[in-house]
Hints:
Elements: E1 8-9, E2 14-15, E3 20-21, H1 27-31, E4 43-46, E5 61-64, E6 73-78, E7 83-87, E8 93-96, E9 99-102, E10 104-112, E11 115-122, E12 126-129, E13 136-140, E14 143-170, E15 176-177, E16 179-187, E17 194-199, E18 211-214, E19 217-234, E20 240-251, E21 260-261, E22 267-269, H2 277-281, E23 291-293, E24 306-309, E25 312-316, H3 333-340, H4 348-354, H5 364-374
Parallel strand pairs: 15-20, 22-25
Antiparallel strand pairs: 1-20, 2-20, 3-20, 4-7, 5-6, 6-7, 8-9, 10-11, 11-12, 12-14, 13-14, 14-18, 14-19, 14-20, 16-17, 16-19, 21-22, 23-24, 24-25
Helix pairs in contact: 3-5
Amino acid sequence: MKTKRAIWKTALSFLLAAALLAAGIPAAAYEALGADDALQPAAASAAHTSDELSAEETPEVVGEEPELRSETGKVYRLSDGSYAAVDYGRAVHYRENGTWQDYDNRLAYADGEDGAGYENTAGDLRVRFAPNSASGTITVDGTSRRYYDIVVDLGETIENIKDFNVYTEYLHDSGIDYCIAVDYAVSTDGTDWTTAGRAAPSPEVVAEVNGDYAYPLSLDTGVSGRYLRVRLIAAGTTQFIFVTELQAFAYEEPVELTLSTDKETGYLTGLTPGMTVDEVKDQFLFPSDVVITDAAKGDAVGTGTQVSYDGSTWTAVLIGDLNGDANVTGSDYPLAKRSILDLAELNDAQTEAFKLGGTSEPTPTNYLKLKRHVLKLSDLFA
């Protein structure tokens, strides 16, 4: 589970590890590239080194172990039965249905409701490049200039996006131009756009001097959208603009982490009355991977609800909630009383809930505390 949740939502950051060609993009040129062709490991740890084995003895890679993937790494099975772990220093996998999938940045032409262009094949974000040599012209400082659009599908509407940036390289001697400006816009449908603002190069460009330039834009009031459009406005008439990275960041309120899990007991605790399924999921690093079953009426999580994540399953326990309705009400303390009088037997989860988080076993005092809570004379959760 998360130890903290940053206000910066870095899931919107994405990397383009290739030059952006402002002329037409021939699809055939990209079909020859494999999904992993651009991967260059930053560090690797293997079972063998070149000093230990001769060339004839060096084991070969037999295949990958997908279940051992991480966001930035892979584990390969070697021909001698050993394994080699490789960390690429950047994200090479994305989460889908609870498993790590390979990014596939091969471009293919697509013509959808939100426009046509060349799109990446697989990833948690969809990036689309315009199919034409330029998207059009725009007047900047009294001069008509060509622009080129990149559109990114964030997969869902993201609220409160406040910061944008584009990183470029200016290589005058090689015919790689710089941008006189970059415009940012957002949209909910990919058709109607709301302008976020225009960014100038930073630092200031020195003509005919090669350099790296960024185009940062920060907003006081955030914007929302599913689609992000980056409009690169060329300074000259060159056919090439080199983009190394695009960024967008959204701010969100930090989630207060209240839940805890115990591997030994198998319980998930820290719930409050009426806590919903979505609120519980938000306490985990990947909320979409959390599976919750046997939730109470109203989609709430109470005692006995099963919570599964990353191969582990816990039984939820809400203190005082003996009947599993995700609240502590007058129907709970009669169950507690019958248990104390040995007139009824509680199951393990109910017994844990009756401990009220403070005793090793349910006691008559616990029953009195539970009854006082129901009568609003005290608060178990204060």
